[in-house]
């Protein structure tokens, strides 16, 4: 309630007097007085005091803000409605220094009661997003909540960057939230969605969420090769899984070396084609020609980056296969053969079919032999019977 203190002892003649108000830093405070009778505009003023209504300084007439060391004149605006007998005062971009008591004062009617202005800092909002593990193309819900202990409605501004900066502002009561929906795109990966409380986007308390978090993975793949005009060549692929797509690739090599002083050898960056190193397709591929046994133990790694992050692969070590002129990596090893799993499966299928045919053939041969054997025994028996009959005669 308005403080019922008086600036002067004269009887007041107001039908509406300033009320207590609480405003967040950066907001706008408004006070209003309505006179019982139409006053002389040149004889009414807005006044302000810091501690109480007892002492005051003049801020404005009914139409004009006056120079004042307490409140910046540029932030004051006043108006007077002659039909409603109402005088209004607005203070924009409120600061903590504006805290105090505000009243109307008339030479002929005396002072009004005081309306007390309290200025508070905006609360820290609470952010969340759902679902918890979305993918590109999913619709997410962004939630920004004003804490229950906030004293006044708070302006919340959702802010994020896509192709253009998005700003959505709502005024939210304590314990309530501002919700927005958004369809995730590749460019949202590891991008913050911020909610800012209060009237200043640069200094207001804020919270943020990162709804889309797809990690960048990088690995080196040794591709199958065959000897060419330049001897044995090794081909490497910088294989990435990335959202958004990677835009930069770089190779590094580390040759084995022994240093007596205990220092470690340094990685050599290969960014362009030089000597026997060829960098192809924007750095995605690395070809090394004229591979010899001196390259045994060579380590190769790849660096990749996109607009959100970067990553480096684990190194792959080149291994000279024993008693051969071939090379492999510590990942593929020298046990790798030229046959693919599909080829092995076909061989197994053919072997199975041949086995079935052999078994069937042997079964047929066995049946034929058995029939032949029965017929042969039958024929022998008949011959013996005929000989016996002849002997009896």
TrEMBL record:
Coiled coil: none annotated. One of its GO terms (molecular function) is cell adhesion molecule binding. This is Cell adhesion molecule 2-like. GO terms for cellular component: cell-cell junction; plasma membrane. Keywords: Disulfide bond, Glycoprotein, Immunoglobulin domain, Membrane, Transmembrane, Transmembrane helix. Residues 12-104, 125-200 form the Ig-like domain. The keyword Transmembrane applies. It comes from Acanthaster planci. It is a single-pass type I membrane protein. The chain crosses the membrane at residues 347-372. It holds the Pfam family V-set. GO terms for biological process: cell-cell adhesion. SMART domains: IG. Gene3D superfamilies: Immunoglobulins. It comes from the Eukaryota.
